[in-house]
Amino acid sequence: MTTNVAPLDSLLEFFRLLRVAGLRVGLTETQDALQAVETLDDWAWLHPALKATLIKRHADEAVFDRLFQLYFQPGLVKKPQSSQQQPDSPSTQMSGLGQGGQNGGGFAQPSSGNAYQQTLQKAIQFMLRHVYNPSMPPTARRVQEALLLLSEMVQRQSETDKPLDEIQADLETAFMQQLESDQKTPALESLFGEPDVDHINFHQMDQSEFKLIQSQVERLIKQLLSKPKRRYQPDQAGQLHLRKTVRKSLQYGGVPIQLARRKRRIERPKLFVITDISSSVEVFSRFFLMLTHAFQHTSHTCRSFVFSDQLHEVTDALQTSINRTPNVATAVDQLLKTLRAGGWTTRRTDYGTTFKQFHQHVSRHLDRRSTIVILGDARNNQAPDQLQRFKDISQASKRILWLNPERQPLWNTGDSIINTYSPWCESVEECRNLKQLRQMVHCLSDTIR
């Protein structure tokens, strides 16, 4: 396995490490640093060039120096060789940044065969020195963000074949062991159990927060899949079946020695999931479709639909994508990419047409065992609401649960018609962050098994 990290990616990765360590490296500093690097003809000036453009406070200088030594190999920064050949351009000279070998960057690529362990130890040193601080309230958030970033770096720098989740698990274990060697504190487990991302608005998260939330959604999926299904035991004292009892009594001269019982009829629940995939709720839709995969495995009957101005069933497409790609997030990305290519995410939402088509497709399958979950902001773009169709769906099913990813004060403003449909729903809930999503999933999983 070989890797070739682009120079720009290597520098941006170093900038992200600086931010994780608490240094104030914003967009302006990043642009200044990249422009300064482009002008260098002697890479011995890389350290002072980055320091001059990135560091604005004297208190941050020592941290920057340690991180630079940790990230870049000793001996990397040296003058280009003088020869009769045409000197390389700055982009060519930087081709070694972020790679292993003598001209490599990033964590030092050891010459021994145990490259993975040594690279892992470098990552732990960074965590202990620049990330973990028990006195700071957002420690859990910073630790989780650093673990994701360092896992990617370890995978690339050590050239290991291990998947990213295994590397992150190794980092967590080694980091915990290192801390517990000094003192064992029960609070350490909270760094990896429930990171401080529960209240982040899905519409306001950055890339690092997106990865953290996605990892929590994947963990929630594993919990759903591992949860045991309900086991029905035979009812030994069921309702008396009079006709069978009389028939059996004939062999005893009409004496009802053996009583016949009616078998209990097990009614398995049905689940229908309807997800808005328009651009206004696309981020939330991605997480919800990941969970839909788990619902299809835990529920006896689960059918999944997406819509914008038209309704489209994706039950089989989602399952096929997941069968081809074990990673649920990748499978959902492929499905959304296909829908995006068809223009589904750019259309104007039409809830009335969606409910009309849903009633036409599944009305004969709805009964008192059916639970319908709708994800959407109820913004109908002034289209007809088709309320009568929605009433028919509600009356034919057991219940309708509506999840609205907008803040509740924004409901029924503009073209939102959530109050039109809410009287016919059992529950209409705000669901715009991980905590609310987790509560909904646990409540729903207990009722559909």
Strand residue content: 5-15%
Overall pLDDT score: 76
Helix content: 40-55%
Residue runs with pLDDT of under 50 for 5 or more positions? 1-6, 74-113, 183-195
Q: Can you write the helix and strand succession as a string?
A: HHHHHHHHHHHEHEEHHHEHEHEH
CATH class of the largest domain: Alpha Beta
Q: Quickly give the structural class.
A: alpha/beta
Query: What is the overall silhouette?
Result: elongated
What can you tell me about this protein's structure?
The structure is a single chain. By secondary structure, the chain is α/β, with parallel strands linked by helices. The chain folds into 2 domains: 7-78 and 108-191, no CATH class; 270-448, 3-Layer(aba) Sandwich (Rossmann fold), CATH 3.40.50. Helix content is 49%, strand content 7%. It has 18 helices and 6 strands. The chain has a 6-stranded mixed sheet with strand order 3-2-1-4-5-6, with helices on both faces. It is elongated, with a radius of gyration of 29 Å. The two termini are 44 Å apart.
Task: Please outline the helices and strands.
Blueprint: H1 7-20, H2 27-38, H3 46-54, H4 61-71, H5 90-93, H6 115-131, H7 139-158, H8 164-180, H9 190-193, H10 207-226, H11 242-249, E1 270-276, H12 282-298, E2 301-307, E3 311-313, H13 315-324, H14 328-341, H15 351-362, E4 370-375, H16 387-396, E5 399-404, H17 418-421, E6 427-430, H18 434-448
Parallel strand pairs: 1-2, 1-4, 4-5, 5-6
Antiparallel strand pairs: 2-3
